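Internal ticket - ligand job 175, GNR:
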Amino acid sequence: MAILPIIWAPDPVLKTKCKPVEAVDDEVRRLVDDMLATMYAAPGVGLAAPQIGVEKRVIVVDVAGKDEKPQPIALINPEITWASDDTQVYEEGCLSLPEMYADVERPARVKVRYLDRDGARQEIEGDGLMAVCLQHEIDHIDGVLFVDRISALKRNMIMKKMVKAKKLRSREQAA
Ligand code: GNR
Ligand code: NI
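stdout (structure tokens):
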């Protein structure tokens, strides 16, 4: 399992609508395993394939608490089949927007249909952080970031900071 570098916004790969997986084969399983290793190393509670530069509809999540045993879930071709009318506001972050946070309002509960690591059909229902994470990751494979769901003023402030952060990082890497 490889820990891969996470792509920072702004980057065109994070704006791409990703392609469905046609067959859950060993290559997809390797992608899932690399994504889980990368998510745990970060650390994060979720990761979407485009964040490591892969334009496929694959996401991983694990919202288990620090003292609980890990609960990795890999979702291939995930689709939201139902969203509650009631909403929740959660302060979101993103590994592709490090150190940036903003309140985002989304449906409080969702049902998601997907293929698991063995290619079997599954459905999951989540609330709280799980609901946030599922929607945040499915947004990623549609080319949407959490900053696309906040005011233009806040989004522009965060994106300006990201452009500076990326310049700083590339200068550090060059040195
Ligand atoms: O690790 C993450 N934490 C988080 C916190 C609040 C709302 C969403 C998230 S997802 C994020 C990891 C990530 O960027 N996944 O795409
Ligand atoms: Ni994210």
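Auto-summary: The radius of gyration is 16 Å. Residues 44-48, 51, 90, 92-96, 132-133, 136-137, 140 surround GNR (ligand 1) (CB under 6 Å).
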